[in-house]
UniProtKB/TrEMBL annotation, chain C:
This is Quinol:cytochrome c oxidoreductase membrane protein. It holds the Pfam family ActD. Keywords: Membrane, Transmembrane, Transmembrane helix. InterPro entries: ActD. It comes from Pusillimonas noertemannii. It comes from the Bacteria. The chain crosses the membrane at residues 58-78, 98-121.
Length: 466, 959, 181
């Protein structure tokens, strides 16, 4: 008992509730996965909720499989695309998902470098979100191809024809950017997981789990040497991931701004796409955080402060994006370029104007609520705002991709894009896939980094000492 | 006998009907067996390759045959390109007066009809397949009865006939059966004009225009530039006159935008009655009108008098050309005016229509009386005077005026025999149907619009066992079955009255090789009957009804045989850009008055058609208000899956007055609230403040520059060792006839995608003809737009796999088998001229394989495609040049669009060679490139239109 | 084979206890072979053990440079040497367009080198290790701290297990066990 008093106990800070010991946080978080002490036994309702959600989302996954089979059999004509609007939902979805896939690495990397304590309890699931979103985003360019079975031609690989990708094409840059981003995010995530996997290995009851987690943990034993190299590597990864995050959406933005289409060809695109990406990313982080903390009773770990800070980032992004919108309009008129001006006016009043104004409302007006502390700390409000922002950002992508194309240079070539039922099927079932993956993640991996939480407990405890 | 029985032995595969997209895509596909066995099989008789082409059948080397296609019975000379025995492409015949090397959309599309597996394949009796022999037997008995009655019950119905052989055969029949009658049904023709000519010349006379001698042309709703037997030639001649000094002028009064209006110096939208009023005013100003037309002052009077002075100023070099929609009185007026202007014999030649020879007692021949019209026949049928009716390549059950009710009459005919390419409405309503051979499958002959005779030379044995009209008529006349080949040769043996077989053979082969027959006597002009000229004019039109329907020939589908042709169906109409459909065309004000938008279905009723018909409207700027134009040729019930169930049949509203089927009728219009979705290829026709189409004023033609200064480039210009191919399109010469678009489709195996896909914006034409309506005037500007082959091609930079790149001669090439289909290139193409295979559009039917151009890849699903500057022709020319060990010469490479253009608006060649035609064209001050500000440096440039200020009628002062 | 003596592991309840133990052991003998185990990166632990500087940053640098160089070379070679075609009239070596891929390759190379280097220098993966046999060593990944005292290499004579245990417990280890391989 004597040593028990000495044990570090969290005094209760904005980021971490009071009364938590290193063992406590470990048990709590591992419990969710190992089904001991976690809500699986205590809150059985979380259990059946999880099951039914998994079932429904899996239905969506099967739909996606079936739909893509049919797509590959019949041809990309299933979508509403045509000439002149040769890019439709598929590309919009791609940009949207990749945007969502930004917040995770941003949180883990940049907030780590900035020594932001509030990153600790949200980075793990945010990174998972990043991985899944980026992975799904990677599917859409393939769905969108006329001959998807030749997608690998975009990669440089030795072939006897001595054919290479065409390096001047932003799409090739995309391939490199996205695959690099996926790989680095995966490494970052996995490296972060290793100590936690070790904890699970050591806590797991069944031999099977011990074996599984043990293999994944690579024999981690918390040796001081390991910790030393581990920390250096983790820090370096963070340093590398930071410019990477920025570069990925920059490249995605270049897909458009390299093109000469009015509405694509704009220098503001890279920064404004990155901001948009964080915008939707943080919206998604909040969207996920709220149910997580609710169903798994993580209010002590994912506190109001976390939500509030995420909301602040969202507000900042919203302002940046708004600046992007404004500058687009300004440059269009300032340039005096007939085509740019026409494109802008068409945005205001053309056939896609309703979508334009709706996303203006979602992305620019609604987030202004977050100036008020009460709104930032009110969970339902946050949920609604973040959902609206997600929807708004999707519409923005849609308008950029489609509206710019439908009326460009020669009036004779102007056309109209109307989404087909398949466009919607792919959008919705991709969301289902995301949900399914996320549900699997929270079931089998710790959604919060235990190792870092232990550190946090110690840290806060020491701070509290007189 | 065996020869005749053999082809029909194969039983027909009844083709189910459904209008689905797949159906349309598979339209040319029904029977592998027949198409397969058909291809590569030359006709049994000896046919002669076109003389300028390499002899023999080297595989891969195309062989060209001169032949003749029929348009309203008149001949249009063509060269048929055959690839190891398979006809694959049609070009114009430079030696033929109706072609001069050009071919219009309908001629180009004939290849598709030739191979159409939905063509009729077997003799039918009642709905049942029968055989030629059974037909012969029953025909024998039938003719026996007729012979007894001196042919009292025998009637022959055909379209206009120019074929000397056919006329001779008809003559024989009329001689053998004195009581028999021959009727001519010409749904695309103009009875009013015929009637007027009959009055003035006392016989069937057609005006032949010589526009190369014309300086001032006034067109009143005239379809001068086709599609018709003389359209190509008129376009060619007028554009030559325009290029000359002084520049020829065109004034167009139109009830609906037509091709003349686009080239006119002044175009004015008027109702047919309004045009007649203008004619009246001109006539009275020239003093050739008995009734002094009251001169109401006003703007119209002003420009009419200006017009009048210009017409008379160009004495003998003007032409007043009335069109179908005008009354026979208006046509009379036009003749009078032209006579007074001294145009007869100069710009307008009245030439007699050929009639069957009637043998006289003394053995000489006299011309038989002119054939009667459809009205008389229907009358006789209703009276029950018709026992035997033979209908040659006509479809009156569908395309005769509703007022006649031909079908009911037909049901009263004991033995009705229909012969045609398709089992159309008439075939189903007749006792017998005989499958007819296509022009390219059977021997015949024809005369062109100007009387030049030429032979119809088959280039392939009948694919679906069709027969020739000659064989059937020979049967009728003599109960003999001589082959069409014998009959035609016999005809010309007499015509040339040659007994020397050798001499005949020489001349025959000469005729086949050149594609025209040299004849001694030219067509003599028919003298106009002075008395008739002075005679009192019939009463002018009464008060104009509020809304008048004008029945116009469709731009694409002129005859029933073209209705099952997917190329013509999918070819956008010049002004509306509608495909696969016809629409009731109305003006903006009329639309506003009834609160109509494009596609709103209205019901049109006339006095004697109270039930009327339902038609979706399309609003056309430049349409005369108070006029609804109803294109004919749609609303088919039979005749192929492509033809059926599209558009509406305007014939039902057509009325008949004293034997003439009228081209206009007073109608009431009532919105129904229903809506019809059209498949149009161009939605925006305003210029939106851009100037893709430019014009320079006549006198600045050589001064002011149409082009902008080329913006600087960061990159050094590429130097090409070999030729640098380039193209110019003369927008002042382009009449927007669409011939190039179809020529391109035929040459490059471009698939048809069907109305649903067109509606989704996925049409595949590599060459599209953009139309813009300059501000309000409704005066249209056409612009052929295909890949511009930019030096700094934006499409190439963004392709991730390098599937589109520049080749050594600066062509922007598309590597189909490297394309993965990201479609980024299309996004980045400012001209949006790239086309994408969203589905597997290619037609995999054997018949399609047989007619495909073997030098052009058939694209698979998911790849991008676009104009290649006919790269296959370039390499073919290069190979030829190398075989002859000489460098490529200017004109060695002729792209499909250039070859077929009737006005030589398109010029292709080596821009690196300063002496080439294209280099000289590019040197013109009118030369400019579209969207030059993007610095794409296109290889294709345009020559600005010429705006002749003095020529316009708008200005107050004119010299 | 006969089990070899690995060392003696002592369990501590708090990081401070662990650090304290290490420090005074070091004061006694700088060359003692010590291994410390903690459930998270305890501040000052590596200083106390005065571990040598890691090589991970160096690996990362090399990886990045290699990645970037190979990335640019690949593009240059493909566009200029192996497959030179006229693309939109641009120069063959349009290096500004090669930057994005070069950049991504740099990051990729560096990141891979960092992680693989980290695993390599910490001798992972190594799924089994004698220390795992120590009783309740599982708590090392929860909330307990362990210090393993190891004999110098090639030390003759019997294992000084007993003496080591006394040392550790005198330093405040709540429990200590021998570890044999």
């Amino acid at each position: 008992m004597a040593e028990h008093e000495e044990k570090a106990v969290s005094p209760g800070t904005p980021e971490l509730g009071a009364g938590w010991t290193a063992g406590g946080v470990t048990d709590k978080i591992a419990g969710v996965v190992l089904g001991r002490g976690g809500p699986w036994t205590r809150g059985w309702h979380a259990h059946w909720r999880w099951r039914s959600a998994l079932l429904i989302s899996f239905g969506g996954v099967l739909t996606l499989l079936a739909a893509s089979t049919w797509l590959f059999m019949r041809g990309v004509g299933l979508f509403g695309v045509n000439i002149p609007v040769a890019w439709g939902f598929a590309l919009g979805n791609f940009v949207w998902w990749i945007g969502i896939g930004h917040a995770g690495t941003f949180i883990s990397a940049i907030l780590l470098l900035l020594r932001q304590r509030w990153r600790t309890s949200i980075n793990r699931y945010a990174e998972a979100m990043t991985l899944f979103a980026a992975g799904i985003a990677g599917l859409f360019p393939i769905f969108h191809l006329g001959r998807p079975w030749f997608a690998y031609w975009l990669l440089p690989y030795p072939n006897r024809m001595e054919l290479w990708p065409q390096w001047r094409s932003p799409l090739v840059w995309d391939i490199f950017a996205i695959s690099t981003y996926l790989l680095v995010s995966l490494l970052f995530w996995y490296v972060g997981l290793i100590p936690d996997l070790a904890s699970l290995r050591d806590k797991a009851a069944s031999r099977g789990k011990r074996l599984g987690y043990g293999i994944l943990a690579l024999g981690w034993r918390g040796d001081a040497r390991h910790w030393r190299h581990y920390e250096t590597a983790y820090l370096l990864l963070a340093g590398l991931a930071t410019p990477l995050v920025v570069s990925v959406h920059t490249v995605v933005a270049l897909d458009f701004s390299i093109g000469n289409t009015p509405g694509y060809h704009s220098t503001i695109f890279p920064p404004y796409f990155v901001a948009g990406a964080l915008f939707s990313g943080f919206a998604m982080v909040i969207t996920l955080a709220i149910p997580l903390r609710h169903y798994f009773r993580l209010h002590d770990f994912i506190t109001l402060r976390h939500l509030e800070l995420a909301a602040k980032v969202m507000l900042a992004c919203s302002l940046f994006v708004a600046y992007g919108y404004a500058s687009e309009i300004f440059t269009a008129y300032y340039s005096g370029d007939t085509y740019e001006i026409h494109m802008t006016q068409d945005r205001f009043t053309g056939m896609y104007a309703p979508v334009y104004w709706v996303y203006m409302f979602c992305n620019v007006v609604v987030p202004q609520l977050l100036w008020w502390r009460r709104a930032r700390r009110n969970v339902p409000t946050l949920l609604v705002v973040s959902l609206l922002v997600n929807a708004g950002m999707w519409m923005e992508r849609f308008v950029i991709v489609v509206q710019s194309l439908h009326a460009d240079y020669l009036p004779s070539a102007w056309g109209v894009f109307l989404p087909s039922v398949w466009d919607w099927v792919f959008l919705l079932s991709s969301i289902a896939l995301f949900v399914w993956l996320f549900l699997m993640f929270i079931r089998y991996l710790p959604m919060i980094s235990m190792a870092e939480m232990r550190g946090l407990v110690q840290e806060t405890a020491e701070e509290a000492k007189p | 006998m065996r020869r005749l029985v053999a082809p029909t032995a194969s039983t027909a595969a009844a083709i189910g009907v459904d209008g689905g997209r797949r159906r349309v895509l598979k339209l040319m596909a029904a029977s592998a067996a027949l198409a397969g066995s058909g291809c590569g099989q030359p006709p049994p008789e000896k046919i002669r390759p076109y003389v300028n082409m390499p002899e023999g059948m080297a595989p891969g080397d195309p062989v060209f045959y001169a032949s003749t296609l029929l348009r309203q019975g008149c001949g249009v000379g063509v060269l048929v390109e055959t690839e190891s025995g398979r006809p694959i492409k049609i070009e114009g015949n430079p030696a033929h007066p109706a072609s001069l090397g050009a071919a219009d959309a309908q001629s180009q599309a004939a290849i598709l009809t030739l191979w159409d597996p939905e063509r009729s394949r077997t003799v039918m009796r009642g709905g049942q397949p029968s055989t030629w022999t059974t037909l012969l037997d029953s025909l024998a008995t039938q003719m026996g009865q007729e012979a007894a009655a001196r042919g009292g019950g025998l009637r022959l119905l055909s379209g206009p006939v120019s074929s000397p052989t056919l006329l001779a055969q008809i003559g024989e029949i009329l001689a053998r059966f004195p009581e028999a009658r021959w009727h001519v049904h010409d749904p695309a023709g103009c009875d009013a004009a015929k009637h007027a000519a009959l009055q003035l010349f006392g016989g069937p006379v057609q005006p032949l225009y010589r526009l190369e001698h014309a300086h001032t042309v006034l067109s009143l709703d005239a379809e001068l530039f086709g599609p018709s037997a003389d359209g190509l030639r008129n376009a060619h001649d007028f554009m030559n006159a325009r290029r000359g000094e002084p520049r020829a002028r065109m004034y167009a009064l139109e009830s609906t935008p037509g091709l003349c209006g686009a080239v006119a110096d002044t175009r004015i939208a008027l109702s047919p009655a309004g045009m007649e009023a203008v004619l009246d005013m001109i006539a009275s100003q020239l003093g050739v009108s008995d009734a002094m037309a009251e001169q109401r002052p006003g703007p119209q009077a002003a420009w009419v008098s200006r017009l009048c002075t210009r017409l008379s100023a160009a004495h003998g070099a003007s032409a007043v050309i009335p069109g179908h929609s005008l009354s026979s009185r208006a046509h009379l007026l036009a003749w009078r005016i032209n006579t007074r202007l001294g145009n007869l014999g100069r710009t307008i030649h009245p030439i007699a229509q050929r009639l069957p020879p009637a043998p006289l007692a003394d053995g000489t021949h006299d011309a038989a009386p002119a054939p009667e019209g459809l009205g008389a026949l229907v009358q006789a049928m209703h009276d029950g005077d018709v026992q035997t009716l033979l209908m040659l390549d006509v479809n009156p059950v569908y395309d005769s005026p509703g007022a006649l009710d031909f079908a009911r009459g037909l049901s009263r005919v004991a033995c009705s025999i229909h012969m045609g390419l398709y089992r159309d409405e008439t075939a189903h309503a007749s006792n017998w149907h005989i499958p007819m051979a296509h022009e390219l499958e059977a021997w015949s002959d024809a005369r062109s619009f100007d009387g030049t005779a030429s032979l119809v030379q088959p280039v392939i044995a009948p694919l679906y066992g069709g027969l020739s009209a000659h064989e059937v008529l020979d049967m009728l006349a003599h109960m003999r079955t001589r082959s069409a080949h014998e009959l035609v040769r016999a005809q010309w043996r007499n015509a040339w009255n040659m007994n020397d077989a050798e001499e005949f053979e020489r001349r025959w082969e000469e005729a086949l090789r050149r594609g025209v027959i040299e004849e001694a006597q030219a067509d003599r002009l028919v003298p106009i009957d002075e008395k008739a000229l002075k005679a009192r004019l019939p009463e002018g039109p009464g008060p104009e009804p509020q809304l008048i329907a004008v029945f116009a020939n469709d731009h694409n589908i002129v005859s029933c045989n073209q209705a099952n042709n997917a190329w013509l169906q999918e070819l956008p109409r010049p002004y509306t850009k509608i495909t696969w459909d016809n629409a009731a065309l109305i003006g903006p004000a009329t639309a506003g008055r009834h609160g109509l938008r494009n596609g709103d279905v209205v019901s049109l009723t006339s006095a004697d058609k109270p039930d009327g018909l339902l038609a979706p409207v399309w609003i056309v700027p430049g349409q005369a208000e108070g006029v609804v134009t109803l294109p004919l040729g749609y609303g088919r019930h039979q005749g192929g899956s492509v033809a059926q169930g599209r558009g509406f049949d305007a014939h039902v509203l057509q009325e008949v007055r004293n034997g003439m089927s009228l081209r206009s009728a007073a109608v009431q219009l009532r919105p129904t609230g229903q809506h019809h979705a059209f498949a149009a290829t161009q939605h925006e026709m305003g210029l939106a403040g851009r100037e893709p189409v430019r014009s320079v004023s006549l006198h600045a033609r050589d001064g002011a520059d149409a082009a902008d200064a080329a913006p600087p480039s960061l990159y050094p210009p590429r130097q090409y060792g070999g030729p640098a191919w380039g193209m110019t399109v003369d927008l002042d010469a382009c009449i927007g006839c669409n011939a190039c678009a179809i020529a391109c489709q035929a040459e490059n195996n471009i698939p048809s995608v069907g109305p649903e896909e067109v509606a989704r914006g996925r049409e595949m034409h590599w060459m599209r003809i953009d139309v813009y309506h300059a501000d309000s005037g409704g005066r249209a500007q056409f612009q052929p737009m295909a890949c511009q082959h930019c030096e700094n091609a934006p499409c190439e930079i963004v392709c991730p796999v390098g599937a589109t790149m520049h080749d050594s001669e600066g062509l922007n090439v598309q590597v189909y088998n490297r394309c993965v289909g990201t479609r980024f290139c299309s996004n980045n193409c400012p001209y949006k001229v790239r086309r994408f295979n969203f589905f597997d559009y290619a037609d995999h039917d054997p018949s399609a394989a047989a007619r495909a151009n073997p030098d052009v890849t058939v694209r698979q699903r998911g790849v991008m495609e676009k104009c290649t500057y006919c790269v296959q022709r370039i390499s073919h020319a290069r190979i030829e040049a190398q075989k002859q060990g000489r460098p490529l010469r200017d004109g060695d490479v002729v792209t499909a669009c250039e070859a077929t253009c009737p006005t030589q608006a398109i010029v292709f060649g080596d821009t690196a060679d300063p002496r080439s035609r294209v280099s000289r064209a590019k040197a013109s001050a009118r030369n400019y490139t579209v969207l030059a500000e993007l610095n794409t440096r296109p290889r294709t440039s345009y020559l600005a239109r010429i705006h002749d200020k003095e020529a316009g009628l708008e200005e107050e002062d004119d010299g | 084979m006969t089990p070899r003596f690995y060392g003696v592991v002592g369990r501590f309840e708090t990081p401070d206890a662990l650090l304290e133990a290490i420090r005074c052991l070091r004061r006694r003998d700088r060359h003692l072979r010590l291994e410390a185990y903690a459930p998270y990166a305890v501040e000052g632990l590596s200083e106390a053990l005065d571990l040598p500087r890691g090589k991970v940053p160096l690996f990362t640098l090399i990886g990045g440079v290699l990645g970037g160089a190979s990335g640019f070379f690949m593009q240059w070679y493909a566009a200029v040497v192996s497959f030179p075609v006229n693309i939109g009239g641009r120069p063959l070596n349009s290096w500004p367009m090669f930057i994005p891929v070069t950049f991504e390759m740099t990051i990729l190379g560096a990141a891979l080198a960092a992680v693989l280097g980290m695993l390599a220098v910490s001798g992972l993966p190594r799924l089994h290790h004698p220390i795992f046999d120590a009783p309740c060593f599982g708590l090392a990944t929860r909330d307990r701290y362990f210090l393993c005292l190891r004999p110098p290499p090639g030390m003759p004579g019997p294992a000084p297990a007993k003496q080591y245990r006394e040392v550790l417990e005198s330093l405040g280890a709540t429990a200590s066990d021998e570890v044999w391989t």
